[in-house]
Structure formats: structure tokens, C-alpha cells
What we know:
The complex is a heterodimer. Chain A is mainly β. Chain A is built from no helices and eleven strands. Chain A has strands at residues 4-7, 10-13, 18-25, 31-37, 44-50, 53-57, 64-70, 73-79, 87-94, 104-105, 109-113. Chain B is mainly beta. Helices cover 0% and strands 54% of the residues of chain B. In chain B, the strands form two sheets. In chain B, strands 2, 4, 5, 9, 10 and 11 form a six-stranded mixed β-sheet that branches. A five-stranded antiparallel β-sheet of chain B has the order 1-3-8-7-6, with no helix packed on it. The chains are: A mainly beta, B mainly beta.
Amino acid sequence: ETGVTQTPRHLVMGMTNKKSLKCEQHLGHNAMYWYKQSAKKPLELMFVYSLEERVENNSVPSRFSPECPNSSHLFLHLHTLQPEDSALYLCASSQDPRTSYEQYFGPGTRLTVT
Amino acid sequence: RKEVEQDPGPFNVPEGATVAFNCTYSNSASQSFFWYRQDCRKEPKLLMSVYSSGNEDGRFTAQLNRASQYISLLIRDSKLSDSATYLCVVNSDAGYALNFGKGTSLLVTP
């Protein structure tokens, strides 16, 4: 639908697990983003990649580790998470982060940390 | 002060009603403004960009008031399918980030 896909759609993990979230965009965009959406809070920007280079890291704990192997794929590697990390994790893409602010979102991964 | 502030609602309106949402932003250097729509447990979807001169898309009209730093969204002839959360979005002066409001919840009833 939106050209941005995310897997898995739902994930339950223990605090000692390691897992990865995957995002793929089919829109030919140059920038990709990770956001966190917690209940009753606005979307929080986590990371921005432009042409595979990380250009923004919003003081995210090191237990979240992004990876952008090419302009179409973005990963978020998770390890030793805390229960407060349970949230909806959204990936987005845009044509060019400097000139186009219109971002298109994937369906999100709903993460529960137990 | 929060970057983007919205009345969370909920706004409960009957079908056919006109409803308006306002949003205020704190960064006077912001240049780009948007309204996104988010359905329950779904991702945000771009509804419309907001231009300085105001813009209209069917039943939806967006206005920008730079002097007062607020943005509005007017929905005419509300449909049941308009029920959703409407997110006000403003770019930050850092270039890459978009600042999202918490959203305004709209429920259109038969």
C-alpha cells in the first residue's frame, strides 16, 4: 500500500533476547527513519539515514542498534531491552530529508518486552 | 514548552458536521507543516501538506498562521470513515526531524 514494509508485525521478546526489526521501502527514496510510538506520547524520532549514512541519532540507548546496508533496507537490532521499550516501532522513508519532509510510514512492529 | 501542541479531544461529532482542529508550534523557524491521519493501531498516513496560502483537498482545508504559529484543519461534511487521530506535524530546525503532536482524536457518529 504505502510502499514501506516492516517485519515482523508483532514481536514478543524477553529482556535477554536479541532480535532484529526489518524495514524495506519500494519508493526509490533516499532517506529512512526509525520512530518509536508509545501509548499517549507523540512519535519520537530515533534514527535517520540519508543515502545509507546515519545523519541523526536522538540520544537513543545503545541497546538499539540501527543498520542501513543500502537505501532500500533498514534494520533495528535489539538486545537486552527493558519493559519500557515496549511500543510500536515505525519505519518511514522520504525522498530527501533536506528538501522533502513528506514521510511515508510502514505498518510498524508492535514490540512487547517481557 | 512542547514543540507541537494539540487538543487531544476526543471530538465526537455527528455525520455531516463540520469540525476544526488547531495546533500550535513553538519553533518560529519551522518551514514545513503537515497533517497526518492515524487509524487505531495503524501507521500514520500523510493527509495533506499545509502551505502558507492555505490549501484545500476535497472536504479538507488546512490553514497556516505564521504570526500566531498555529495550523488548523477543517473537515466539512464529516463521514464515519473520518474517525481517526489527526496528527499535526512540523519540521524542526535541525533539518531532518519532524516533530509530531500527540494527535487529536475524532469520532464521527451516525
